[in-house]
Amino acid sequence: MIKSNFNSKFCQYVQDNISIVEKDRKFVSDVYKSFQDVLGGNNTLQIGSYPRFTAIRPLHDLDILYILGEWDKNDHNPVSLLQSVQNKIKNEYVNPTKHTYNVSLQSHSITIVFKEHGEEIFAVDIVPAYVYSDNEFDQDTYKVPEIAEQKHIKRKQFYKQLQESDIDMGWIHTDPRGYIEITKQVNEVNNDFRRVVKFIKAWKNSHKEEKEEFKLKSFHIEQVIIQYYQENTELEIFDAIFKFL
Asked: What GO terms are given for molecular function (predicted)?
């Protein structure tokens, strides 16, 4: 089989088996809008792979930054504000799905878990953020609690570790708008980019299922492949996949 046929097969496989389907996109869009209706559209920002269009199925969670204002290194305890947000969600939130949900408050985030027959099927984590500086695209960057670096399924454990160690939550500088812009620009030059990212993420997840200690992170995969396409804008999906593997 010639390479062009392999390229075509890879593209079709990603579309048919890995990419987010329209039904799931509508679900996330409806859920995100439902929180914007409560928190305000100007105060919220999706982060992670979903707004970069590099997420893969099945979708499990969505992270939303809740922007509280400008960063003040001497005053950035979000607890009281998050308590107000929790009450606001409980009193005003309109669930756009057919699923039940519950809201829980931690010291530096709010988690909303959607359930079906008692089983979690999707979760939203609302994480506080403060505007910190500008990126190269003149967009806001943020300070966020380090819990934002943890996957949803590991956040309870992370909170527990901090509590047991009597350690305060750290804050990190992050640039989600910049990451979104870079992935957009790279994909506009060569739309194989996102396909390759999705394929490698699916490969990583299959290894993770077999070997829990498999350390490779999805975000790092994305950054490596961005570099591939910045170095060679004509890189084909076949070559990019096997360059990584």
From this structure: transferase activity
| 84/101 Cα distance (integer angstroms) | 19
Class of domain 3-244: alpha beta
pTM here is 0.91
Helices (H), 18-145: 22-39, 79-92
| pLDDT for res 162 | 73
Nearest to 175 by CA among 206, 134, 114: 134
DSSP 117: T
Rounded Cα distance, 58 and 183, in Å: 21
pLDDT single digits (tens) 170-224:
899 999 999 999 999 999 999 999 999 999 999 999 988 877 777 888 999 999 9
Distance CA 42, CA 207 (A): 39
CA distance 36 to 45: 9
Rounded to 5 degrees, what are φ and ψ at 214?
-60, 115
How far apart CA 7 and CA 34 sit, in angstroms, is 39
Give the DSSP letter of residue 27.
H
Q: What percent helix, strand, coil does the chain show, rounded to 5?
A: 50, 20, 30
pLDDT digits (tens, 9 = 90+) for 2-44: 888 999 999 999 999 999 999 999 999 999 999 999 999 999 9
DSSP of 163-210: HHHT-PPPEEEE-HHHHHHHHHHHHHH-THHHHHHHHHHHHHHHHHHH
- Where are the chain's structural domains? 3-244
